[in-house]
Amino acid sequence: MTLRDFTPKEIGYLIDLAARLKSDKAAGVFARNLANKNIALIFEKPSTRTRCAFVVAAIDEGAHPEYLGKNDIQLGKKESVADTARVLGRMFDGIQFRGFSHETVEQLAAHAGVPVWNGLTDQYHPTQILADFLTVKENFGALKGIKFVYTGDGRNNMANSLMIGAAKMGMDFRIVSPASLYPDQEILDTCREYAEASGASISLTHDVAEGVAGAHVIYTDVWASMGEEDKIPERIALLKPYQVNADMLAKTGNPDCIFLHCLPAFHDDNTEMGRKFPDIKEVSDEVFEGPASRVFDQAENRMHTIKAVMVATLA
Ligand code: CP
Ligand code: NVA
After folding, report:
1. Which of 107, 123, 128, 298 is catalytic?
2. Average pLDDT, the chain
3. Atom of ligand 1 nearest to the CA of 299
4. Which of 89, 140, 165, 293 registers the highest number of CB atoms within 10 A of its CB?
5. Is 98 an active-site residue?
């Protein structure tokens, strides 16, 4: 459901397993760990990476993935989540859910009797973090002690999940955002407990120069998440100073700092793309396309890490 469910050792294991499955695939080695398994993929919200990662990973491992879009099934409308979970659990070996309420994925997990994987809810996006951390490890060789800055909407699913992961893995994690978008106190308190055990540090600041100093990683996400489209104008006004651009990268003082983004990203020409808000741009094109950017390695790593999650929990 979230990375709270896993110990630091288990998270480290999933990342290392993903790295191994990645090199196996590059070498043409397919162990087919999930032969004869069937995987249900429920999507209330759209997706490119998560959906494709589950589909390709399942097929690489010999499983059959079945996409169930929001108009294909009766989830929570004509049929309760609990009933749907019990039916799917009789037919499928694992279920991925992407949607709005985090309670829905918890209910699915409570009733399905098979592994349920959270492919993003309004509050959390745990599988993304595994891909992000694999990418960090590929670049820096370790996670512990990494100065990891998340800037932008400090209270969305990405901020919450990165903070949990970073706290568990001993990172120096900083949220750089306006105070009105700081994370919930409950998640912050939990992460500070994890940090005590792991040696991580968790800090919040609205000051860009202070927050990004010495960073190894600058990470951002869209300023308004799926389902929050009505908030776009107010977010543009609040978050413009937190755009990731060459000036922000220079402020890190670290020439080896990398840029990460879960994608999709607003970085290109909004007018050309026919978008309604020309000013929404959480990262400049210069950084997105520049030498610090690792966003497409990161996107590829969604597939290897999701494969690791399915193999570890199902094979
Ligand atoms: N990063 C991510 O979850 O992308 P999708 O919304 O395309 O799945
Ligand atoms: N915070 C974003 C993440 C997309 C992968 C959203 O929920 O829309």
Report:
1. 128
2. 97
3. 1
4. 165
5. yes
**Residue whose CA lies nearest to ligand 1 atom number 3:** 50
pLDDT band at 127; cut points 50, 70, 90: very high
Burial class (CB in 10 A: 0-12, 13-18, 19+), 201: middle
pTM of the model: 0.98
- Residue range 126-299, CATH number: 3.40.50.1370
- Does 224 contact ligand 2 (Cβ within 6 A)? no
Nearest to 50 by CA among 111, 126, 163, 160: 126
CB 70 within 8 A of CB 43: yes
Catalytic residue among 51, 60, 96, 98: 98
Cβ partners under 8 Å of residue 234, min gap 6:
none
Where exactly does CATH 3.40.50.1370 map onto the chain?
Answer: 3-124+300-314, 126-299
Residue 294 annotated among the catalytic residues of the structure: no
Task: Give the residue, by CA position, lying nearest to ligand 2 atom 2.
Answer: 225
